[in-house]
Structure to design on (344 residues):
């Protein structure tokens, strides 16, 4: 021990037990909670935050762009700078402006069109042409108005009937005359040929006539070849392959001209028959004729007939037969065939 007890000095052990400062208390702070997620606003709801001047400018720009697009489309369709198309469909420069108060419609026809190739029907028709014409008004002096030039009408298109009548190989339509009864006996027949494409049937010859490739017809049969004849018997059927005329007789006339495509070159026609007939309950028209031609320097004559029968389809059924003089024993087959025509 140290110190003096008499002077009341503090003992050393007392000093050691002097009060000490308390230790600090350690605490752990919890992190603050995250802020709530902001709700995403749509584009339309955010438009309200924009100044009105910005909105007005955007709308005006959209209207101008739309107007430019519409103008470009109209220009590409109408072709303002190319002028009004002419009747022929070719763009010509626009005509000078004239005081026009009305229009006048004129009818023009076309002619001079070359005849169609063999087997192709000729066409005819006329197209109305509307030509602007100056019509003076009550307040406008007549001297101040002038009519627009009227275009020259196109040449007239010949119909198939007119083309046939103008063909020097075929005379005018014949007068009514019955088909002659040719001498001899027709070839034996067995059953009937049913041409469903044409809507007609006829006797089937059993021996001399041989079936062959039908195209471009619906059915086709031929007789054997004969030396130096230049032609042989032919029997075909099909829907009439030319333009149908107003009268069945006229259609048969044009069809007879078409059959010259299946005779030697330079052949001409002489009429022998022209008559109406009935195939069952259907109306028909028959033309008989002789076809003159040359083969190997020799003159020949074929006897032929073409018959048309009205059927429910769009075009009449046609049956055509031709037999040269080298096979004249078969001329009687013409009578057998024409008397046996029936619609299906």
């Amino acid at each position: 021990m140290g110190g003096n007890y008499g002077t009341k000095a503090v003992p050393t052990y007392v000093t050691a037990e002097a009060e000490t400062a308390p230790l600090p208390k350690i605490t752990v702070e919890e992190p603050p909670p995250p802020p709530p997620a902001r709700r995403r606003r749509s584009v339309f709801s955010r438009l309200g935050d924009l100044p009105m001047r910005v909105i007005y400018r955007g709308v005006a720009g959209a209207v101008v762009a739309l107007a430019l697009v519409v103008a470009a489309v109209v220009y590409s369709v109408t072709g303002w700078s190319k002028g009004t198309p002419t009747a022929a469909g070719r763009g010509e420069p626009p005509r000078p402006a004239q005081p026009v108060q009305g229009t006048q419609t004129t009818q023009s026809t076309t002619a001079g069109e070359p005849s169609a190739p063999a087997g192709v029907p000729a066409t005819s028709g006329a197209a109305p042409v509307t030509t602007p014409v100056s019509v003076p008004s009550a307040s406008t002096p007549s001297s101040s108005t002038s009519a627009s030039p009227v275009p020259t009408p196109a040449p007239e298109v010949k119909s198939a009937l007119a083309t046939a009548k103008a063909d020097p190989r075929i005379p005018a339509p014949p007068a009514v005359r019955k088909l002659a009864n040719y001498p001899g006996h027709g070839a034996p027949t067995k059953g009937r040929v049913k041409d469903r494409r044409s809507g007609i049937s006829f006797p089937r010859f059993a021996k001399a006539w041989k079936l062959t490739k039908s195209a471009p017809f619906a059915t086709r049969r031929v007789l054997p070849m004969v030396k130096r004849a230049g032609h042989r018997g032919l029997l075909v059927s099909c829907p009439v392959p030319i333009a149908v005329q107003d009268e069945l007789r006229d259609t048969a006339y044009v069809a007879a001209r078409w059959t010259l495509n299946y005779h030697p070159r330079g052949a001409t026609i002489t009429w022998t028959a022209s008559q109406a007939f009935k195939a069952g309950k259907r109306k028909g028209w028959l033309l008989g004729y002789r076809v003159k031609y040359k083969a190997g320097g020799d003159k020949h004559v074929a006897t032929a007939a073409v018959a048309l029968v009205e059927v429910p389809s769009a075009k009449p059924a046609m049956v055509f037969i031709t037999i040269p003089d080298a096979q004249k024993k078969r001329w009687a087959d013409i009578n057998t065939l024409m008397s046996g025509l029936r619609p299906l």
